[in-house]
Amino acid sequence: MKRFTIAIALSAFLSSPAIADEDMSARVMKYRSAIKSLVMSLKSELKTALRAGGAVNALSVCHTKAESISSKVSKQVGFSVKRTSLKPRNSNNAPDDWERAVLEQFEQRKAQGENPKRLEFVEVVENNGQRQVRYMKAIPTRGVCLRCHGSEIAPKVMNKLQELYPNDKATGFKVGDLRGAFSITETLSK
Ligand code: HEC
Known about the structure:
The protein starts with a strand and ends with a strand. The chain is built from 4 helices and 5 strands; from the N terminus they run βαβαββααβ. Mean pLDDT is about 90; it is low at about 5-15. The longest helix is centred in the first third of the chain and has 57 residues, at about 20-75. By secondary structure, the protein is α+β, with helices and mostly antiparallel strands. Strands 1-3-4-5-2 form a 5-stranded antiparallel β-sheet. The structure holds heme C. Heme C binds near residues 58, 93 and 147. Heme C binds near residues 59, 62, 66, 85 and 93.
C-alpha cells in the first residue's frame, strides 16, 4: 500500500493509484475542517466547565462528554473522527495498530525537527475487504493543557483523575510534547 506524508510534500500523494490526486486533496481539506469542528465543540465545553467549577468540575464534564462530542461530530460529517494517544487517559482512546504506527512516526518526525502543529499523515488502507481512507493530525501540548496533563497537577485534580481514570497515562507532558492526535477513518463505497 502506498503511503503519503502530507507534511513533507503535498505532492507526495499525487501519484496514488488508489485515489485521484484532486480527490485526495479535497478529502484532506474535509478532514481538517471536521477536526476544527471537534476542536471547537471540545473547547467550548471545556471553557464553560472550567468557568463553572474549575478543573475538577471540568474533568467530570470531559469524562462524560468527550466521547459523545466525538460521536456527534462523526455523525454530522459522515465518517469517524476521534482522538488517540500513545499515553491515553481514557483507555477507549488507545490507538489501534495503524494509529500507533502513525503516532510513532509523528514522534520521529518531530525529533527530526518538523513543526508538531503541521504533522499529518494520510493513507488508503484495506480493512476486512473495505477500502478506507485513514488520516491523522498531531495534537501538540499547550500551556492550558498542563493543568490536567502536566507534571504539577493540583492534588484535588489528581485525586479526581485517579478516581475517574485509574489507568491514566496522560500526565507528565510538557509544552510542545505531542499529547496525541486526531484520527479519521472514512470507509469508501465500492
Ligand atoms: C480540565 C482538565 C483537562 C484539560 C485542561 C485538558 N484535558 Fe485533555 N483530557 C482530559 C480528560 C478528562 C480526558 C479524557 C476524556 C475521555 O474520557 O474521553 C482527556 C483526554 C484528552 C485526549 C484524548 C486521548 C486520551 O488521553 O484519552 C487528548 C488528545 C487530550 N486530552 C488533549 C488535550 C489538550 C491538547 C489539551 C490542551 C489544549 C487538554 N487535553 C486539556 C482533561 C483535560
